[in-house]
Amino acid sequence: MPSIAFAAMPTSDAEVLWSGGADAYGHQPETMVSDGPGHPCRHCLRNINAGEELFVFAYRPFPEPQPYAETGPIFLHQTPCKRYAAEEVLPPVLASSRDFIVRGYGKNDRIVYGTGAVTPTGDIPAYAAALLGRPDIAYVHVRSARNNCYQCRIDKVETPALADAGAFI
Prior knowledge:
The protein contains 2 helices and 8 strands; from the N terminus they run βαβββββαββ. Strands 1-8-7-5-6 form a 5-stranded antiparallel beta sheet. Strands 2-3-4 form a 3-stranded antiparallel beta sheet, with no helix packed on it. By secondary structure, it is mostly beta strands. The protein has helices at about 10-20, 125-130, and strands at about 5, 30-35, 55-60, 70-75, 100-105, 115-120, 140-145, 150-155. The longest helix has 9 residues, at about 125-130. This is DUF1203 domain-containing protein.
């Protein structure tokens, strides 16, 4: 099975909103104050603490609009936060639920039918690795099992090819 990496929303996407830009529908993000758990930031992949301001906005984690490019509401710290970097570790935000939808997408950014499954949180790494071991799966999304909201992406970690096998003596 391949190694996997959990990937948060790209910083470039977050910076658009932090600098006053619009969401996937061309609207300004709404500002609200977190009342505690239940507002996962998709950039740092941590819950937004009670009393902190956040953005809620439409997000499309796909390169372009197309029939399978799901767009939905997500949260982001209003104040810039550091992007999640421990890619090999289950992100803290995924501890908020007992299960999530895990679904594979092809290189054409379309859902690969038959891959979506409500998956217990602890089983996400193994199921994602199994999906990413298939030649028809380019990446995986983790989504809320209750509301289908995008949480994060999982990619296969490519192992660099040995440039020169003779270099190992």
